[in-house]
Design brief:
heterodimer, A: mainly alpha, B: mainly beta, five-stranded antiparallel beta sheet, 29 strands, about 5% helix, globular
């Protein structure tokens, strides 16, 4: 909605559907986050990541993988992946893969 | 910046293509290890060198863990063949195996002698732990089964009181279970403020972490429990049997690196963990809790490897044998070239453990000596 990509992203990351088995909810949520991610200009990605907490980055990484599964913007998503990994390390990726309750 | 090192190449030994587990005898003169097959090799360690002395061949499949009872000088081994053997050294100097009927229908994953060495616990893929003790009248080892796990039990550790057992499982839970057995144990423990002493196999504390639990370790005083999970976290639970269980007294460290596979307390305020990053990492407890770790295998502490002037022959050789060229190398900067799979204590003074060894999937055993630990601890800001 307009120009506030960062605000939109933060909002999209609130209340992630971690516990539900309802695939529709999960896919809808992932599409929304993917849309917000893509709206952020590439040069701004590092800045956004820098301002996010470690817990948020763990959640974001889970969404990045989910979005890579269902959306088509792999180029942008991989740029986000690179940026998040640089800040949060391989541990963040491991958590995205290992956690039982995920997006 | 340190310009000299306390670690030398002499502290690294390459004994096999891959090592699954290892254990030292009490005097630290003998080392038992499994080279990722069904055998147990015993090496004599003298004057800084290893010499292979025995090859114990009884198991049919990979030996997943060995533990050496220091006082009674007995070895226990467990394997993917679902069996455990207790090994005794006879007067002729041969290691004699005694089969222990565990009644498992899946692989054994881990084994540990209890502190008093009158029992041992075997973790298994059949979602149970077999606690074994010796029955004098029948002259054999009897196993008692602990259930209560929803998936493979990956690791066990005994509480210093010889009565409680911590387990880690691939169901993501870290549990403390009563393992007091009538016979070897004089009494059942009244623990965690409960009125009635728990029965054998009863779970007295339970926590769900974010992934498989690879290793659990009680602190020497038995008031803390550390566990490492596959979601790259290290947690320390303030768990004193003298008081009620506080499920929130868990300090969780979320790591940036790859998960740990092993964790051991060095003393009540220090622990070391190692795993897929091939680098043992120290953690110290200060006023505000447990601080972020310090990696022991720090290139800054090492002698600068002499710049390898690759000869023409070396370049050609690496190109043909490994498809490498001088642009890239797969060699890691750490002493271990592959996952650290096992951590074993060497020197334990009154106050703390001051030296330990690690073995890994690279087949190396590395000694981490007190000077290295001290250097690293002083670099840790707590």
């Amino acid at each position: 909605n307009g120009g506030d990509a960062l605000g939109g992203l933060k909002a999209a990351l609130q209340n992630p559907p971690l516990g539900t088995k309802n695939q529709e909810i999960k896919i809808g949520s992932a599409r929304l986050v993917a849309k917000c991610l893509v709206m952020v200009k590439e040069k701004d990605i590092d800045g956004v990541v820098e301002g996010m907490s470690n817990d948020d980055l763990d959640l974001l990484m889970k969404y990045i993988y989910r979005a890579l599964e269902i959306a088509e913007n792999s180029k942008e998503l991989l740029k986000w992946h690179e940026s998040v990994t640089k800040k949060a390390g391989l541990g963040c990726i491991v958590r995205a893969l290992a956690h039982k309750y995920t997006v | 910046r340190h310009t000299h090192t306390s670690m030398t190449e002499a502290d690294v030994h390459w004994l096999a293509p891959c090592i699954t587990c290892h254990a030292w005898n009490k005097e630290r003169t003998l080392l038992a290890l499994c080279p990722n097959n069904n055998e147990i090799h015993i090496y004599e360690y003298k004057d800084g060198k290893f010499a292979k002395k025995f090859n114990l061949k009884e198991h049919d499949q990979v030996v997943t863990a060995v533990d050496w009872a220091g006082e009674s000088n007995r070895l226990v081994s467990c394997s993917q063949d679902r069996n455990a053997y207790v090994w005794n050294l006879d007067e002729q100097g041969t290691w004699k195996p005694t089969l222990v009927i565990l009644r498992l229908n899946r692989a054994a994953t881990h084994v540990k002698w209890s502190p008093q060495e009158n029992k041992f616990a075997v973790a298994s893929g059949s979602k149970v732990v077999a606690v074994c003790y010796f029955e004098e009248e029948n002259n054999w080892w009897v196993s008692k089964i602990i259930k209560n796990h929803m998936s493979t039990v990956l690791c066990v550790d005994w509480h210093p009181n010889n009565l409680l057992l911590a387990t880690g499982s691939s169901d993501g839970h870290c549990r403390v279970i009563c393992s007091a057995i009538k016979g070897p144990d004089k009494k059942r423990p009244t623990v965690f403020g409960k009125e009635k002493a728990p029965a054998f196999g009863e779970v007295v504390a339970d926590h769900e972490a974010g992934g498989w639990i690879h290793s659990v370790s009680f602190s020497p005083s038995g008031t803390q429990l550390a566990f490492v999970a596959h979601d790259s976290t290290l947690s320390v639970w303030e768990l004193d049997p003298a008081v009620e269980v506080n499920p929130n007294a868990i300090h969780k460290i979320v790591m940036k690196c790859l998960p740990f596979k092993q964790v051991i307390f060095l003393d009540d305020t220090r622990l070391v963990a190692a795993g897929w990053d091939c680098n043992p990492t120290l953690y110290a407890k200060g006023g505000s809790g447990w601080a972020q770790g310090k990696e022991l295998d720090d290139p800054a502490f090492k002698e600068k490897k002499e710049a390898k002037k690759a000869s023409a022959f070396d370049k050609f050789e690496s190109k043909t044998s490994r498809g490498e060229d001088e642009r890239g190398t797969t060699e890691l900067e750490t002493f271990h070239q592959n996952t650290i799979t096992f951590l074993c204590v060497i020197t334990r003074s009154e106050a703390a453990i001051t030296e330990f060894t690690t073995t890994g999937s690279d087949g190396r055993i590395v000694f981490w000596r007190s000077k290295t630990l001290e250097q690293a601890f002083s670099a840790l800001s707590v």
